[in-house]
Structures are given as C-alpha cells and as structure tokens.
Design goal:
Blueprint (H helix, E strand, L loop, with lengths): L1 E2 L8 E4 L2 E11 L7 E8 L5 E6 L4 E4 L2 E11 L4 E5 L5 E4 L16 E7 L2 E6 L3 E9 L12 E6 L4 E5 L7 E5 L4 E5 L1
Antiparallel strand pairs: 1-6, 2-3, 2-6, 3-4, 4-5, 7-8, 7-10, 8-9, 10-11, 12-13, 12-15, 13-14, 15-16
C-alpha cells in the first residue's frame, strides 16, 4: 500500500478500481483546516487526465510497472501490432496508446511497451529516430542566414519543420518526444 506522502510523478496507483498514473502532485497545507494532496491523474485505459484531491491518511494499492522491448510490425487505423522479442508472440494495441509518437515509428523498429500489472498501457518509441526527408521545397537563397524553417514530409508521412538548407533525400534525426528536428545525419 502507498500513502500520499509516497507519491512520485509517473507512479501507478489504483483508485476506486481504476488504474491511474500520477502526472503531478502537490502537498497543500492551508492556513485553516487540514492538509491535503492535489493531484493530476491519467487513466491508463482512456488516457483522460483528471484532477483529484486526497487526504494525507488515504492509502492506495501500488501497481507494478515494467517496460518490455517489442518490435513494431505494422499499424492500421484500428490497431497497432507488435511482436515480443523473446517469445515471438504478437500483441495488438489501440492506436491511442501510442499517441502522437506513432508518426515517427517505422516497420521493424524496436519500441518499449509500458506494462502495468501485465496489461499494456503505453507505447514509447526510441527517444531519437533517423528518417529520410521525402518531400520538401528548396530553400530560397538568402533566407538561410535568418535561420528560418520550412515544412518537410518524412518517410513515415509525418510533416515537421526543418531548416531551409535541407533537401529531399537528406536523413535527419528527430526527437520523438517533441517531434522537432535535431540534426542532419
């Protein structure tokens, strides 16, 4: 069991039969009345973030969280299919568990699946990926000094902003957490 004084960001707890991860929390001691803990909790099933306050004496069941390396096979509008690297079993997930990071994942890429109590909760790609620019307009001469950017389509079909000096066929490194260009490879 976990009390509110043990809370940490990212910790998974069970509240009223539903599993949540703690997005953020704050211990509050008002001038009048008793202390309380204000939290933002993310529901692992729906992805919805809710605000809840708890008394300091409340206790919750801590949920076991582990990461599992899996290979991305393919995605359809209804599912994301992965393969366990150890047992070669296939796992089907809802695309919502991958979020926006799905646009940077390519076939056969190794990803990490966050498992909460043995149930898949979130798909995390590598922090940085190297992809090819498949379509972009040429930069206008003279604009490179100002450090401008232009939209570019990458090999997965996503569109990101890149510096003006990049051209079609260049390989670039992208930060999957933010979706931003990092460097040319």
């Amino acid at each position: 069991m976990v009390s509110t004084s043990d809370f940490k960001n990212g910790m998974a707890i069970e509240v009223e039969g539903t599993i949540f991860t703690i997005v953020e929390f704050q211990h509050v001691k008002p001038g009048k009345g008793g202390a309380f803990v204000r939290t933002k909790l993310k529901n692992i099933d729906t992805g919805a973030v809710i605000d809840r306050t708890f008394r300091p004496v409340e206790k919750f069941r801590r949920v076991r969280v582990e990461g599992k390396k899996m290979q991305f096979l393919y995605a359809t509008p209804d599912e994301v299919v992965l393969m366990d690297n150890e047992s070669y079993e296939q796992l089907s997930l809802a695309p919502a568990l991958a979020g926006d990071s799905l646009q940077f994942i390519t076939d056969n890429m190794e990803v990490e699946v966050l498992m909460i109590d043995g149930k898949p909760a979130q798909l995390e790609p590598p922090m940085f990926v190297e992809l090819e620019v498949t379509d972009t307009q040429p930069g206008v001469k003279g604009d490179t000094v100002s450090g401008g950017s232009k939209p570019a389509t990458i090999s997965t079909g996503a569109v990101i902003n890149v510096p003006l000096f990049l051209k079609t066929g260049d390989r670039i490194k992208i930060d999957t957490r933010t979706g931003n260009y990092v460097e040319r490879v």
